[in-house]
Design brief:
The structure is a single chain. The protein is of the alpha+beta class. It is built from nine helices and 15 strands. The strands form three sheets. Strands 1, 2, 3, 4, 5, 6, 7, 14 and 15 form a nine-stranded mixed sheet that branches. A four-stranded antiparallel sheet has the order 10-9-11-12. A hairpin with an 8-residue loop joins strand 3 and strand 4. Helix 4 crosses helix 6. The protein is globular.
């Protein structure tokens, strides 16, 4: 990982930006939940116990940090919204509930809105932070995976590598599919972060052999003539992508392809090793090396600087903080 910013006291909240609102009819109860101090999976387990249902019956669009105040949608079929609305359990509250036709699935969100008050920043830091924020809004945010993806002291990464290099089919019989997916994705995330570190100086340009990411659609294409794509890259319409390796991932070519192979060799993996994981879990995708920063704001508040911004699904606020606070005296 790149240089880690100082751990500082901060107020941190995350609000999910959904792809759609519940329609008001159907068999699935959508729960708008606020939680603090517990993970999304812990919240699901608590609600499952409350409703007498298995955790696997719940749906969610994304996993939210346990260390923040977070608001997100969860879904469960066959539960009366009147019973769920206003429910309070340790660490969580159901703010509202409504019906919808379909179960909420992973990835069914537009992004997240972050609000962060950094207590150790004051008026003297405002110009530098504002300048950094403007730079990120223009050129994009390096799309690092946050440390929470890798577990405490990197435990998820170590377990994921052991599974891939051992017998994934046997392991899959012993642990839940969601946990298996999480552990294997830690390995993919590490491969991506290593590529991003090596290409950090060129994430605002594409070269021959790159697999370019189209931000408007999430589609990818192989770059053959980088000069023709330079304008779109400058406008943050497209960006170079990095590997989340797997058998279905579109491979880069040329020097970029060789660089990605080199990084995977460091981890003793290749794209095909992920095919051993049963059920098509973690089959491989591309991920943009940078992402747009939506509706950024910074203001002086009582006790610090308040930062607000939006990121697309799968991107981490820690990546923004790392760039915003870079070069400040206390970092």
């Amino acid at each position: 990982m790149p240089g880690r910013y100082k751990q500082i006291p901060e107020d941190f909240s995350v609000t999910e930006v959904p792809l759609y609102e519940p329609s008001g009819s159907g068999e699935h109860c959508f729960l708008w939940v606020e939680k603090c101090g517990i993970s999304t999976l812990d919240a699901v387990e608590a609600l499952a116990a409350e409703f007498g249902r298995p955790a696997r019956d719940f749906g969610y669009a994304g996993l939210k940090d346990a260390r923040a105040v977070t608001r997100q949608w969860l879904s469960i079929n066959g539960v009366d919204p009147a019973r769920a609305s206003g429910l309070e359990l340790p660490g969580l509250q159901v703010l509202s509930a409504s019906l919808h036709e379909n179960k909420l699935r992973m990835g069914h969100l537009a992004g997240n809105r972050f609000e962060i008050v950094v207590r150790e920043l004051g008026p003297e830091h405002l110009p530098a932070v504002s300048e950094n924020l403007d730079h990120l809004a223009k050129f994009g945010v390096p799309n690092y995976f946050g440390e929470q993806r890798f577990g405490k002291r990197g435990a998820n990464l170590a377990k994921g590598i052991r599974i891939l290099q051992g017998n994934p089919k046997k392991t899959a019989r012993r642990i839940p599919k969601r946990l298996l997916r999480l552990l294997i994705s830690a390995v993919q995330s590490e491969a991506f972060n290593r590529i991003l570190i090596r290409r950090i100086e060129e994430i605002d340009q594409v070269v021959a052999g790159d697999v370019a990411w189209i931000h408007a659609s999430g589609a990818c294409f192989l770059v053959e003539n980088p000069e023709q794509e330079a304008a779109r890259c400058e406008q943050l319409a497209i960006s170079p992508s990095g590997p989340m390796p797997g058998p279905k991932m579109l491979l880069a070519g040329g020097e970029i392809g060789r660089l990605e192979e080199e990084v995977m060799a460091e981890l003793a993996i290749d794209c095909e090793i992920f095919a051993k994981v049963p059920g098509g879990t973690n089959s491989g995708v591309r991920r943009p090396l940078r992402v747009p920063l939506g509706s950024p704001q910074v203001e002086l508040v009582d006790g610090g600087l308040k930062l607000e911004f939006e990121l697309g699904k799968g991107s981490f606020a820690t990546a923004v903080l790392r760039q915003l606070l870079a070069g400040l005296p206390w970092v």
